[in-house]
Amino acid sequence: MLSLTATTRAQRKMHDRGQTLLLAPIALLIIMILGAVTLEVGAMHLRQRQLNDLADSLANDAATVGFDIDHFRNTGELAIDPGAANGVLGGGIAISNLPTAAAAPVSVTPGAEPAVTVALSFTHEFVLGRALFGASTELTATGEAALVPSA
Fold first, then answer.
1. Hey, what long-range contacts does 96-100 have (CB within 8 A, 24 or more apart)?
2. Residue 75, class by beta-carbon neighbours within 10 Å (0-12 exposed, 13-18 middle, 19+ buried)?
3. Quick check: 79 pLDDT over 60?
4. Is the pTM of this model over 0.90?
5. What is each CA distance from 40 to 26, 37, 50, 97, 128, in whole angstroms?
6. Which residues, 6+ apart, have CB-to-CB distance to 90 below 8 Å?
């Protein structure tokens, strides 16, 4: 009876030895997929932050460049020239980290403190996660800046 149990245990050990060999490639594949997902999500998050920063910077530049000095000298009121404000967008996008970003025309809100709103969009292309996420996704950002009179 004792030798039968020992033989059975030895046979089980021999039979179980191949299971680790099958699990190792599966575990490696799972680690690679998780790594690819991490890289893709991290890159997309970075692009979104860059797009937000660009929208805020362009809104600030558009408000500054679009300041209508002639209107201010004649009336004493702050105003933004939409044409001058829109002129900033192309050059600002071209020298940024996202030169393929697209901008909608600047939206100017008149008033005592006129404001400029810049809306941007960017197509983020996936590299490693195409099977999981698709080929690309559209990122959007909005920046706003206002002219505030100093005391």
1. 96/50, 96/54, 97/50, 97/54, 98/47, 98/50, 98/51, 98/54, 98/122
2. exposed
3. yes
4. no
5. 21, 5, 15, 18, 7
6. 103
